[in-house]
Specification:
Layout: H1 3-9, E1 20-27, H2 31-42, E2 47-50, H3 59-62, H4 83-88, H5 98-111, E3 118-119, E4 124-130, E5 135-140, E6 146-153, E7 175-178, E8 193-197, H6 201-213, E9 216-221, E10 227-229, H7 237-245, H8 247-255, H9 275-288, H10 291-296, H11 306-323, H12 327-333, E11 346-348, H13 351-354, E12 360-364, E13 370-373, E14 377-380, E15 384-386, E16 389-392, H14 401-404, E17 409-410, H15 417-420, E18 439-441, H16 454-475, E19 479-482, H17 484-497, H18 529-541, E20 547-550, E21 556-558, H19 568-580, H20 589-602, E22 612-619, E23 624-631, E24 640-644, H21 658-668, E25 671-675, H22 687-701, E26 713-718, H23 720-734, E27 740-746, H24 757-761, H25 770-780, E28 804-811, H26 815-827, E29 832-841, H27 855-868, E30 896-897
Parallel strand pairs: 1-2, 1-6, 2-3, 4-17, 6-18, 7-16, 8-9, 8-16, 9-12, 10-11, 24-25, 24-26, 26-27, 27-28, 28-29, 29-30
Antiparallel strand pairs: 4-5, 5-6, 13-14, 14-15, 19-20, 20-21, 22-23, 23-25
Bound molecules: ligand NA7.
């Protein structure tokens, strides 16, 4: 639309010198601002939208550089709120160009007559909360300002270009362009010597087209990025057919998916596939030309596990080497410094092939950094380049830049947002900030935003906020504010979620690392749009948990608390189990319960490969006991850990904790021998305890035969197995051996007392229930025997026991008896370390490759075992330091809450 026409239809308030009074002021007229305006208007709120740009479009208004396109397929990168809009607009390509997306947004603005409430060319300079009036006052650069009840920032995540941070920019006498502020008029590059600095999405999209026009193009690359061919063209027939076969269903699936685009969840792990099968999957995804596809559809461990990810990264590097003819350029273009997907991968058209052109030079700034920009070009510490044009594709002050560009934003009590966020942004749900009543953000830090299809996240945020505002109006509340408790809880939940993916391991704009001096931390929500949506709904369902609402008559409503206290993947597992509506295990009878466990285990991810797995038998107290031995792939002999499985002395066998044993074997570099001790009710107390002890003695005596290191063994066990491990240590001390170098007790049973708090707090809902524990105890041990230390080791003598590592889970009936045992060991002079696993449940650590947040706990268990065995500490990729803030000091080992 021509500018004159825009001006004619834009808000009439632009010439008004009186303060404009509205219910709601929105900043930004991009995808988010336009949909907000539409919804707010329909809900009957007076609204003004303010935007510095000359028309609608937001990021698509400014980013006009050659090659600018979306990198989510346009059939997904579209509004879905109005089916009629969907059928009224047809995209011409799989990935639309910037001009087409801008036309689409103009079409939307016209269709819903939005421009009449938008003030273009208007910058919001500052915002102040007036507590007495319960209104925000916005200072703008044109006119008298705005007074509004609610202030909503729809300012986008990538709107504020980052300064280039290179000396001498102002000295350059040629032309300078920023991809994020590209001129509206045509930029003529033909016959010119052009430089592009930056190889993120913008640079990678622009470089092939600039190379076609320029006399010579020099690309200055600091960090190579992964780029995948877009294979642009018409929208792919299979995706279109999928959408058109059930449009509503497709959209709904997107809303509940992880990334906002409906692709199935991958359940096959890399180690279950042969090299040829992995390559076949990769080639298929490569040919698809879709970021979400290649980021999610190869194998289940590609996004969360460094090893699974490294396989993809290498396949992509192979493609780069196959395309770029000059080996030195190919090497420089191959990323090694970050996992694939941890930094936004790019979609390209002919990017790598561009480096085969005679008129393109790649300068690797890792080898020759830029010294300065001069009047005539760019000087590195090795050479000078004479240039006519410099294009900065150097990125944005992402996620927070556009919010902080309104400065100051002054909230309750005169607090400024920049001061509150000095150490990094904090929000509740990515939507609100404590201390800033009636302020909302769309796709703010803490929202899935840039890790999702933005349109899906935007529509969810807008719908949620507008529905809340309408509900407030109905109930007579005038202010809404996130509480500090809720916000701190969200911060913790964000940190927990960041362990699910590898984003924390790369220096990127996701973590603030691209802007010097900016606080570090993963800013987008990594838990996925579906789980996020469920959480937002739950906030409402629990009476606006974590929000304080007030009304003019002094009325208040505040259900304070944290919306998610469980680890994010534990929450998903428990929700899934709840949906299965299983009968209580204790009602199945022992045989039924064993069959159930076998079925349950058959459906879990297979354990990872180890060097060798050997099944055998060993003499117990009364006949042979089966065992399964896991040997590491590294050269031996290795120390031996005697392992006891969980199952309440009733369920499971020497194979039932297979993935857990494999994982600990790999991480610790030790042999694990899982013992098939006999079970109740066929063999009641003290059979399991005596079998455990006898097996340990035999294994210690036959260590060399088993390929292990002769000398002391270690013991480990989970749940009832933890009980047997603890008891074995006491028996070994009292019966003259074997020597045990350390004990790992994971959520152990230590005492037949049911009155500790955790038994009541976690009695139900966390899979291991109180009544299941009662059943286990009844089958195993008569009440008269329960004070015997061979079933209640907490009641035994604790002096002189081997050093212990005791793991407890917050949401476990057994939590407090585990803690009590650790404390009692410590009091008895036994060296003991505790891992109190926050947000975890009884099975968190044994659900390998399901509960991903259990990884760091298992890494610490393996470390402890190595320490007990006198081995040097190793911190492989799986055991890497996984804290959110890489500048924070390492966690204390003793009694650390994970
Ligand atoms: P990005 O992805 O932040 O890329 C910026 C690029 O510029 C990146 O390669 C940077 O290297 C480079 N850069 C930044 N500052 C400098 C300096 N001072 N010297 C040399 N190189 C520099 O921004 P984009 O605009 O490409 O893409 C942003 C998002 O928009 C994209 O992810 C899509 O979601 C859409 P670095 O990696 O920091 O070493």
């Amino acid at each position: 639309m021509p500018d004159a026409a825009v001006a004619a239809r834009a808000s009439e308030a632009t010439s008004d010198n009186t303060v404009q009074q509205v219910d709601i002021a929105v900043v930004g007229a991009g995808f988010a601002g336009l949909y907000l305006l539409h919804r707010l208007r329909k809900a009957g709120f007076t609204t003004v939208v303010l935007d510095e740009a000359g028309d609608v479009g937001g990021t698509w208004y400014w980013n006009r550089y050659p090659g600018a396109r979306c990198d989510i397929q346009t059939i997904d990168y579209s509004y879905t709120f109005d089916p009629e809009l969907e059928s009224a607009w047809k995209w011409s390509e799989k990935y639309a160009t910037q001009p087409e997306i801008l036309r689409y947004l103009g079409f939307v603005a016209d269709r819903y007559d939005l421009r009449r409430d938008i003030r273009f060319g208007t910058r919001v300079k500052a915002a102040t909360w007036d507590q007495a009036a319960e209104r925000w006052r916005l200072t703008i650069d044109r006119g008298a300002g705005i007074s509004c009840r609610h202030y909503i920032m729809a300012t986008g995540c990538l709107s504020t270009p980052k300064p280039p941070e290179i000396d001498g920019v102002n000295d350059f006498k040629g032309e300078i362009y920023f991809t994020g502020r590209w001129p509206h008029e045509e930029v003529k590059l033909a016959g010119k010597r052009v430089a592009v600095i930056g190889t993120g999405s913008s640079g990678i999209q622009a470089i092939p087209l600039i190379a076609e026009q320029a006399a010579h193009l020099t690309v200055f690359q600091r960090t190579p990025n992964f780029a995948l061919p877009a294979h642009n063209g018409p929208a792919p027939a299979d995706r279109v057919a999928l959408l058109e076969s059930d449009r509503a269903g497709y959209r709904e699936q997107a809303r509940w998916s992880l990334a906002g685009v409906p692709w199935p969840q991958n359940t096959v792990f890399s180690w279950q596939l042969s090299d040829a099968e992995r390559r076949e999957r990769f080639e298929k995804a490569w040919a698809t030309g879709d970021l979400v596809c290649i980021l999610t559809q190869l194998w289940a461990d590609q996004g969360g596990d460094p090893d699974g990810n490294a396989l993809v990264a290498e396949l992509i590097r192979e493609k780069i080497r196959a395309t770029v003819k000059d080996p030195e350029a190919a090497a420089a273009l191959s990323p090694y410094d970050h996992p694939f997907g941890a930094k936004r991968p790019c979609l390209d058209t002919n990017y790598y092939a561009t480096y085969n052109r005679a008129n393109v030079t790649l300068v690797n700034l890792r080898q020759e950094p830029i010294k300065s920009i001069t009047a005539t070009g760019i000087t590195t510490d090795r050479r000078s380049f004479d240039l006519d044009v410099i294009v900065f594709a150097t990125g944005f002050d992402a996620m927070t830049g556009a919010i902080m560009a309104v400065h100051p934003i002054t909230g309750r009590g005169g607090k400024s947002l920049s001061a509150v966020w000095a150490n990094g942004p904090q929000t509740y749900l990515g939507l609100a900030v404590s201390g800033f009543p009636n302020l909302f953000m769309i796709t703010g830090p803490g929202s899935p935003s840039v890790l999702s299809n933005m349109i899906v996240s935007i529509e969810q945020h807008v719908d949620w906020i507008v529905d809340r505002l309408a509900a407030m109006r109905e109930t007579g509340f005038t202010t809404i504010e996130a509480t500090e408790t809720a916000q701190a809880g969200w911060e913790r939940h964000m940190a927990d979620c960041s362990m699910l993916t590898l984003h924390r391991l790369a220096n990127t704009w996701y973590t603030g690392a691209n802007v010097p001096g900016k606080a570090r931390g993963v800013m987008p929500y990594t838990g996925g749009v579906g789980p996020y949506r469920a959480i937002c709904n739950e906030v409402v369902g629990r009476g606006m948990l974590g929000f304080r609402l007030t009304g003019p008559d002094g009325r208040q409503q505040c259900n304070d608390g944290e919306i998610v206290r469980l680890q994010p993947d534990v929450r998903l597992v428990l929700n899934m189990l709840a949906e299965m509506k299983l009968p209580p295990i204790e009602t199945m009878g022992a045989a039924g319960a064993r069959a159930f466990v076998a079925q349950f285990n058959a459906a879990r991810p297979a354990g990872r490969p180890v060097g060798d797995v050997v099944d055998g038998t060993l003499p117990g107290t009364d006949g042979l006991l089966p065992y399964r031995l896991y040997r590491p792939a590294t050269p031996g002999p290795h120390p031996i850990v005697v392992y006891f499985h969980g199952g309440g002395w009733v369920l499971g066998d020497e194979q039932s904790d297979d993935p857990f044993c494999r994982d600990l074997c790999r991480r610790s570099g030790m042999i694990f021998v899982s013992v098939g001790y006999r079970h109740a009710p066929e063999h009641r107390f003290p059979t399991a305890a005596e079998d455990g002890y006898a097996a340990t003695r035999w294994i210690a005596q036959h260590a060399a035969e088993l390929g292990g290191r002769p000398g002391p063994v270690l013991v480990a066990g989970w749940s009832a197995g933890g009980n047997i491990a603890a008891v074995t240590c006491q028996l070994a001390r009292d019966r003259g051996g074997p020597e045990i170098a350390g004990q790992l007790l994971v959520c152990p049973v230590t005492d037949a007392t049911f009155d500790r708090s955790s038994y009541n707090e976690n009695a139900e809902g966390y899979f291991l229930t109180r009544s299941l524990m009662y059943w286990f105890w009844d089958l195993y041990c008569s009440p008269a025997d329960r004070t015997d230390p061979r079933c209640s080791p907490l009641r035994g003598k604790l002096q002189g026991l081997p050093p212990a590592f005791v793991v407890t889970a917050e949401f476990d009936p057994l939590r407090d008896e585990g803690i009590a045992y650790a404390e009692a060991l410590g009091a008895a002079g036994v060296p003991v370390e505790q891992l109190m696993a926050r947000g975890h449940f009884h099975s968190s650590f044994t659900m390998v490759d399901v509960v991903i947040t259990g990884v760091s706990g298992r890494a610490r268990m393996a470390e402890a075992l190595r320490r007990f065995a006198g081995l040097p500490q190793t911190m492989g990729p799986c055991g890497e330091d996984v804290r959110r803030d890489r500048n924070a000091p390492p966690p204390a080992v003793n009694a650390a809450a994970e």
